[in-house]
Write a structure and sequence with these properties.
Order of helices and strands: HEEEEEEEHHEEEEEEEEEHEEEEEE
Distance between the termini: 85 Å
Radius of gyration: 59 Å
CATH topology of one domain: Helix Hairpins
Strand content: 25-35%
GO molecular function: transmembrane transporter activity
Protein name: HlyD family secretion protein
Family: Belongs to the membrane fusion protein (MFP) (TC 8.A.1) family.
Number of helices: 4
Structural class: alpha+beta
Strand order of the largest sheet: 1-22-18-17-21-2
Subcellular location: Cell envelope
Oligomer: single chain
CATH class of one domain: Mainly Alpha
Keywords: Coiled coil, Membrane, Transmembrane, Transmembrane helix
CATH architecture of one domain: Orthogonal Bundle
Number of strands: 22
Largest sheet: 6 strands, mixed
Shape: rod-shaped
Length: 436
């Protein structure tokens, strides 16, 4: 079989001569358009998968309307640690009117809201038991006075009787002594018998001893009488004191104003019965005012006498100082009294309320974040920080310190100049990124 080369001329089966007019065979290309497209698409797919796996932001996102958010700027400034509390104007001194004795009200002379002077009668009470006790005490004192007078009279009579008895005894003794002296001489001269001598001797000795006994008896009786008098005098003095006390008690049935001032309240009416010690009203001393302030128990460990504050009244600031702390906590709050440093404002009235800025510490430089509704959701542990492009806000952990009504003190996580969403996070869920 004959093999022909591409360059040799031959005659085709159709009878044509192909020589130099026959087309040349071209080599097949590798980088075809289809292949380039496939490679480019695969490369883009691999790049997209690598980006999604290694570089893409996988954080959860939420689209929000920026105009409904409050965005605040973190700044460096002076942190003034204070709380705002409400104070109520009260008189510097308030005198409580408590019933010294009980009874029912027979007369009410002055109503609450009127000025009174010291000693003015406000009420009159009636108490029959007190009157009966007073009469019994007076009767006992009168009886003791009579007993004392009788005892003293008896002592004087006993002294007179003693003088009379001693006078008679002395007379009898003198007679007996004279008879005994005569018989002694006669007996020595053996003129009279022994019986006569001994008779006068015994009579003289008997009368002498009787006088001594009478003196001792009267001495005992006098000492006893003096002791009785002393006891009666002591008892009478105590009884008279009781009488005076009962008299003063009866005088207390007329309730009088202990000081001058405003009778701000009188909580009784005619015919009502009041008990001993019951509060029936109060008198306000209008020579000065103080502020009674209610404070949350959260601050009880930081409140002490001498702590200062300020109050604005009629466009002026007035300094105050804590002078008394009431330790009792009711409904999560306790009370303190604050006194004005340089006198109370003019035209201030009892019962008015006003906000007071109570200072808890000295001002200091700090990074400040405005207070907002975010705290209720985060507890101050994280916030949404707006990015530099202003198109999104990302969650970031922070640490907050002290707080006042205007700012939080930022300890970690934020720098001055950064913008933070400070409105409520209630509708944001657990999303880590907010897109505007």
């Amino acid at each position: 079989m004959e093999v022909k080369t591409p360059n040799s001329s031959s005659t085709s089966n159709n009878g044509f001569t192909g020589g130099s007019t026959m087309d040349k065979l071209k080599p097949k290309k590798f980088w075809t358009t289809q292949r380039i497209g496939i490679i480019a698409g695969s490369t883009l797919l691999v790049a997209f998968l690598v980006y999604q796996f290694f570089f893409a932001d996988k954080r959860s996102k939420l689209n929000v309307e920026q105009d409904k958010l409050t965005v605040s700027t973190v700044k460096q400034g002076k942190f003034d640690e204070f709380i705002v509390v409400t104070g109520v104007v009260q008189p510097l001194k308030t005198i409580q009117l408590d019933a010294i004795v009980g009874g029912y009200v027979t007369e009410k002379l002055i109503e609450g809201g009127n000025m009174v002077k010291q000693g003015d009668v406000l009420l009159r009470l009636e108490n029959q038991n007190l009157k009966l006790s007073f009469l019994q005490s007076e009767t006992e004192a009168s009886r003791l006075v009579n007993d004392l007078q009788n005892t003293r009279q008896s002592l004087r009579i006993a002294r007179f009787n003693l003088q009379k008895t001693l006078s008679e005894l002395d007379f009898q003794i003198d007679q007996a002594k004279d008879a005994h002296d005569r018989n002694t001489k006669l007996y020595k001269d053996k003129v009279i018998p022994d019986a006569d001598y001994l008779k006068t001797k015994r009579e003289f000795e008997r009368l002498s001893k009787q006088r001594d006994i009478e003196v001792e008896s009267q001495k005992y009786q006098e000492e006893n009488s003096k002791m009785q008098i002393t006891q009666l005098e002591g008892t009478l003095a105590s009884t008279q004191k009781n009488v005076n006390l009962w008299r003063q008690t009866l005088e207390n049935l007329s309730v009088k104003a202990p000081v001058s001032g405003l009778l701000s309240s009188m909580n009784v009416e005619v015919g009502s019965n009041i008990n001993q010690g019951q509060n029936i009203g109060q008198i306000d001393d209008l020579n000065g005012f103080k502020m009674r302030v209610s404070v949350d128990e959260h601050y009880i460990s930081r409140i002490f006498a001498g702590l200062t504050g300020s109050m604005e009244f009629n466009g002026k600031d007035y300094g105050l100082k804590i002078i008394k702390i009431y330790p009792e906590v009711l409904s999560g709050r306790f009370e303190v009294d604050m006194q004005f440093d340089k006198g109370a404002p003019e035209l201030i009235k009892r019962g008015q309320s006003a906000p007071i800025r109570l200072q808890l510490g000295q001002p200091s430089q700090a990074t400040l974040l405005p207070v907002g509704g975010f705290f209720s959701e985060t507890g101050g542990n994280w916030v949404y920080v707006v990015g530099d492009d202003g198109k999104r806000a990302s969650k970031r952990k922070i640490t907050l310190g002290r707080k006042n009504p205007e700012y939080f003190e930022v300890l970690e996580g934020l720098q001055p100049g950064e913008k933070v969403i400070t409105s409520s996070y209630e509708n944001f869920g657990d999303n880590e990124v907010l897109e505007f």
